[in-house]
Amino acid sequence: MPDPKPKARKMCYDRVLPREAGRPQRARAYGGEGRMRAIALKDKRWINGTTMRIRFLGGTEAQQKMVRDIAPEWTNHANLHFEFTDHPRAEIRVSFDPSDGAWSYVGTDNLSIPLHAATLNLGWQDEGVILHEFGHMVGLSHEHQNPVGGIQWNEAAVIADLSGPPNWWDEATIRHNVLNKYSVDQIHGTDFDPDSIMLYAFPNEWTIGDFETHENEKLSDIDEAFVRSEVMYPGAEPPGEKAVMLPVAAMHEAEIGEAGEEDLYRFVVENRGRHTISTTGSTDVVMALFGPNSETNLLAEDDDSGAGRNSLITATLEPGVYFVQIRHYSGAGTGAYRILVTR
User: What is the pLDDT of residues 193-202, one digit of tens each?
Assistant: First the structure.
């Protein structure tokens, strides 16, 4: 006789930074057209064209080979590059701890993790799990937390099942990873995609309204189209060719013309010295500084240290090329601003 109780599958644990642990997804009703799918959080995208260095923390030769063979599928569609290396400052560190489940930090959150610690764990391995976790690494979120995904949960059944083996999650973890949804202003995306690699298989018993999802082992057509779209990682140019050059001590007029837009600049430091990068104007912007000669080495990030709601970063910089990323604080706002680099 079949077991009437749904069987909990091994599921990914969505890692968040300590500073965000108390900031849950904001549930918000949504109606109208322009529905969402293949979702990505707005403030966690890598600079377009970035090369991410990936180092293994243990694992067998066979486990490492699986990752090398499967994970770069994302780079066939997104303008990102994976470099497998033993470099001690690799941005991504992959562990294979079977007692710690499968998880990854999302997008640029990886840059805030101490260099000795893993940023992605593969407690079990198959093609779907590797693609799913590296999907988080490139900046994608769980598809079932799409704000217009249409999933109505039987919360009691989900909590009861995931509280037991093989996950043993408490209610807060279950709500964070399954039941809570993001609000529309937090994400980029389109319609709910039942074939997304970022979606798990959920049994009918976990939902209301005779609805279930199936196991996905490969990137869907929508996954592929989304990560190469304008809101994620389009084109094939390296960041240095797309970034606007900022001469030192010359004010640059700019504008965030569309919601979610991120402007990228570069400037050259010829001699070691104290530099200040600042914005002015009425637009509430956030600034991130990367370098030297790297689009992934995050040196500083600032929101409101300048006048009003402007950004201000002051640092002693060594010779090299530096990159500055500017985005609107809300992710949905637009407006003009000015940016200046001084020494």
Answer: 778 888 877 7
